[in-house]
Each structure stands twice: as C-alpha cells, then as structure tokens.
Amino acid sequence: MRIAYLGKGGSGKTTISAGFIRHAASKKPFVLAIDADVNAHLSTALNVNGEIKQLSNALSQLCEHLKGKRTDLGDKPMIMTTPPSLSSTFVRCHENDELLKNYALRQDSINLLTVGKYEPTDVGSACYHSKLSGTVSLLHHLLDGKDDIVVVDNTAGTDTVATSLWFAYDMHVFVVEPTAKSAQVYKDFIALAPEVADQTFVIGNKVEGSEDEEFLRSCVSADKLLGFVPHSRHLKRFEQGKVEALQEFQNEQTLLFDKVLYTLLQRKRDWSLYLKRLRSTHSRLCRDWYDAYYGQKLDEGLDEAFTYEAVAG
Ligand SMILES: Nc1ncnc2c1ncn2[C@@H]1O[C@H](COP(=O)(O)OP(=O)(O)OP(=O)(O)O)[C@@H](O)[C@H]1O
Ligand SMILES: [Mg+2]
Q1: Cβ–ligand 1 contact at 245 (below 6 Å)
Q2: For site-directed labelling of 194, which of 13, 64, 109, 221 has its Cα 20 to 30 A away?
Q3: Helices (H) and strands (E) in the chain, counts
Q4: What are phi and psi of 307, to 5 degrees?
Q5: Res 146: pLDDT
Q6: Residue 203 Cα, ligand 1 centroid: separation in angstroms?
C-alpha cells in the first residue's frame, strides 16, 4: 500500500516520512521509500548512507525497462502516463526486483529511490514534472501488494494534483503546522481533489501545547486528524550531528506511527478504478500536449486487454 506525505514547505514532510519509514521498516521486511522532491533530503533524515542514483538521470533506461516486451507502442514514445500492457515489465517490492536492485539504496529493509535534483543543464529549461516522469511511470508499473509498504516524500504544496500522482496513492497524509497557512494547503488539496478527500489525513506537527492542538482541531475533522507531533528538540540535535537523537525522536512517536501504519493497512486498492483514471489522464495529457509535440496520437492502439488484476497475481 502506498502512502504519500504532503504539506506546506518546511512543515516537516521529510522528517515525518523518515520517522514513518523507520517505524514501518522495524515491522515489515520490505519498505520502498521514494524521495520525490528535487530538494532531496530523505536519505539524510533517514540516516541512510551510500551511493544515490538519481532516477531523473535514467529516464530512457527506466522506460526501456518498463516497456519490457510490449509491441503495442510501435514507434510511439512512452510518456509518464502511458498505461502498461500485458507484456510490460512490472516492478515488485522484492529484493530481487531488477529495477530496485539497480536504483534503490538499500539499508536493512529500507529501499530508497531518489528522483534527483536539478543539474546545471536544467537551469532555465527543466520543470519539476519532467524530473519526476520516470518515477511516475515506475509507480504506474508497481505491483505492490497489500503488505508492501511504499512511502513517498513529496514536494511542497499541492503540486501532486497537477500530475497523475493524485490517484497513485492509497493514502495521503498532510503534515500541518498549527498555522492558518499550513492548514490552507491541506484544505486546498481536498478542494482540488475531492475524489481522494476520504483517504487524506493530517498529522499536526511542531505542536506546542493545547492551544496549538485546539487550532488544528478547528481546521481538520476528528476522523481525519491522526495525531500531533510536538516541537521536538531531538531533531535539531540530530541535525547538529548527534545521531542518537533521531532514535529518541523516533521512540516518542511510536504510537502515532503505529496508528498511521494501521490506517494504511486498512486501505483497499481498486485497481480497475486506478486504470480508468490512468487511461483518462493519459488521453487528456495527449490531447492537451503530447500528441501535438510528437505529431502522433499517443493514446491510440494501446493494449486494451491490459488489467492490473491480470498481472498483479
Ligand atoms: N516536530 C518537529 N520539531 C522540531 N523541528 C522539526 C519538527 N519537524 C520538523 N522539524 C524541523 O523543521 C525543518 C523542516 O523539516 P522538513 O525538512 O522535514 O520539512 P519539509 O516539509 O520536508 O520541508 P521541504 O518543504 O523543504 O521539503 C527541519 O529542520 C526539521 O528538523
Ligand atoms: Mg522535504
């Protein structure tokens, strides 16, 4: 099941994602963590060290891999919303998965993928969505099962709704500071994407006292408020190099992360709704942009027989 952390810039998305990933990894044999922010800090927050391969630098290799043996594309390019075919290669949450073996940084049960940052050649011409495209394709080819945990640390704001990621997750968690501006990002999101409002939750972060809690309760309905993370001095100590402080923060949040994990595992994915949304988003993107750019109708002739149920097993 896939959980996405979202929220206003600086609200604590990466900190809370990392805490949750570490918690899930202590309970589950395989956790796929994705740093989907071009300002990549998840490895640092996780204290996971090693060589990071940036997915955005491997777009053509990713597409070639995911295309597998499909023939329905002909000479058409694969874009980030191209629905899979029965002959595509899929990604599975498993230590032997070819793509994850190549691109994920592994530490214990955490497998970390990183979208990657802007390069000097991107200055003035690249957009966030172009950086993200390989990761979006990967998620549309990911056959994660009920017990697999996939955690995505997203970029700030409501940008997710402008891509096919809006329906790619089973659960959204907004990290909200006790301020009106921070709460507004959550409210904007559920207004923009009411279809996923029911699966969208809030964690109040950097909370100092009952006044902050009251404020957050006034912004978020009780059934959507998962809990509060206090303003913690351990985090600054960790960022000042005291590695043990991270564990102290972690220990204090066990109950909350348990609740988040439990809520995530209660979710049920409707693969046919997922595919319907992917196909319609793809057609819209083709009509609005890509058909004209490539001079071809990119949503025609695709494998109509494909269903996720047929390959998910
Ligand atoms: N509960 C907390 N108590 C104290 N400091 C916190 C807390 N949560 C996060 N922080 C601190 O706030 C800062 C921003 O946190 P973080 O990087 O997780 O936010 P973010 O939402 O991911 O930011 P960005 O929008 O840049 O990705 C960091 O210095 C982090 O240590
Ligand atoms: Mg962040």
Answers
A1: no
A2: 13
A3: 13, 8
A4: -140, 150
A5: 87
A6: 13
What pLDDT, on the 0 to 100 scale, is given for residue 111?
96
β-bridge mates for residue 54, sequence order: 114
Can you tell me the distance from the alpha carbon of 66 to that of 59, in angstroms, rounded to the nearest whole number? Answer: 11
* CB of 206 shorter than 6 A to ligand 1: yes
For residues 148 and 160, is the Cβ–Cβ distance under 8 A?
A: no
Predicted pLDDT at 54: 84
Alpha-helix residue ranges (DSSP H) falling in 177-243: 180-192, 210-219, 233-239
Q: Residue 5: what pLDDT? A: 96
Which residues of the chain are under the pLDDT cut of 50?
none
- For residue 149, list its beta bridge partners: 31
Domains of the chain by start residue, with CATH: 2-67+96-273 (3.40.50.300)
Ligand 1 atom 12: residue of nearest CA: 12
- End-to-end alpha-carbon separation of the chain, Å? 15
